[in-house]
Each structure stands twice: as C-alpha cells, then as structure tokens.
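S.,

Sequence below, as promised.
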Amino acid sequence: MKKKNGVVERRAGIAAQVEQIERDLAGIRRVLRRPLETEVAKGNLTLPQTGVMQAVVRSHGISLKDLSRSVSLAHSTVSGIVDRLEKRGMIERRADESDGRISRIYPTAVVSEFVREQIPALARGPLEAALERATEKERAEIGAAIRRLKELLEAIG
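The prediction came back faster than expected:
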C-alpha cells in the first residue's frame, strides 16, 4: 500500500506542477503579446486582421480560399477582413495572371515592412528586457530549462 500511495502522491505533485507551468506559460504569452496588441490597437486593427496580414505577407499573392485555410477562419469572415483591409489600403487584390477568374491578395509595402520588421521586434522586446535583468548564469539556466522542456515534449510526439 505504501508504494501505491507514493505513486498517487507523485502523480498529484506532477499534476500540480503541470497546472503551475500552464499558468506560467499563459502569463508569459500575455506579457510577450502586450506590445504587439498595443501597437495593433493604435492602428485600429484586430488580432484576426493582423493574422490575415501576416499570412498575406508570408504567401505574397494568396487566394482567398488558401488564406482562409491558412488563418483557420471561415471564408466569409476572411472575405470581410480582406474587404476592410483593402479599403484601408493595407492589402490589394489583383487578378491571377494565369486565371483571371481568381484574385490574389498582396500586401502593401507598409504592411510588408510592419509584419517583417516591427512585429518580430515587438515580440522580442519584453523577452530581451527580461533577459537583460537576469544574470549570465540565470540566462543560461533559463535557456537550458526551456530547451529541455521542448525536448521532453517532442519525445512524446
């Protein structure tokens, strides 16, 4: 019976640790997203609009059907987002060169620059600031712990 209680205690301890890690990771994600969310709000954009712009920049010349699939949103939802972004001059639709019945969606230069340069910088900012406050030893420990957690997660498929 003692061994069984030890297993139960171990599982309960792991379950509690899993819950704490989930809370910590969610908190980290919130802090890392905050600068981007602030910048997006300044431009009166929604996060789905930002996601659509990112997908358009990555794919440069994507169909509405493929864009909907890429951002995992309904075709009608993405169509409305594209309409609003097009009205604001952030993206443009052009006829497909090989099939004029299909239109392709392209980013404007301003959107391309924002997605390629500013979004990554905004995302890195809080992490860089936090790591600057840590000692060299702490930075090494944080990096090693995160790499190890990633390895353990990847090992389970």
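The chain has a mean pLDDT of 90.

Coffee later?
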